[in-house]
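Mods, move this if it's the wrong board.
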Amino acid sequence: MTMSAAAWDGVVPLLDDRFDLIVPTAAGHRGGPTLQGRPTIGALVDAAEALLDERGLATVHVAGNSMGGWIAVELARRGRARSVCAFSPAGFWTAGESDETHATNMLRRTRRLAAATRFVAPAALGVPLVRRLAMRDVAERADRLTRRQAVESTRDLLGCDAADDLLGTTERVEPLGHTCPITIAWADGDRIFPPEVNGVTARERIPHAHFVMLRGVGHVPMIDDPALCARTIVDATERDAD
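Not the wrong board. Structure tokens:
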């Protein structure tokens, strides 16, 4: 949520010799298609399905992080996924309870901080330590990013028109039976969706999924370890042959 396709910039070059990649920015997000009507997860899944329809693709391997992981799971529910690799997926909560409000409060705090510092951030984010501290809720090693990448991430955050509605959603991931091979890869350093909270719920709602714990990474593992994310995606697609 709030990030653009640029979040995958470190992972894409590690996969493009193996797959024909589609790397979209979610509807309602900066650089993505405009949403008609109120932004909901269901509407974002509709937009993702429409993209597949435009490309003439019945099913694809799907990878996503956080909200994108939730969308990936819902595409599997609709029969549009050959396999799913969901990194720390959102939606494994009870609406209005602490397992949801903890995450949404952190994201709202991050947006408020970004808005308050938007005029000084471009200069400050030139310092690696500042990048690491400013993005500590989503990554362990945000200092790996360049200044330009960190600034663009902040612009994505502030330019996401759908954020307020999505942060107030009453939707959740409902239990899912067997559809396609599903890998759920949780970051052990996830501060937004702690694996001992939201990860436990994920195991209850999709018990047949293959669960993987990613070591040394935060909620957005593509920032911390693109190579680990790429390997995890490849492994998830190969489970399709099991």
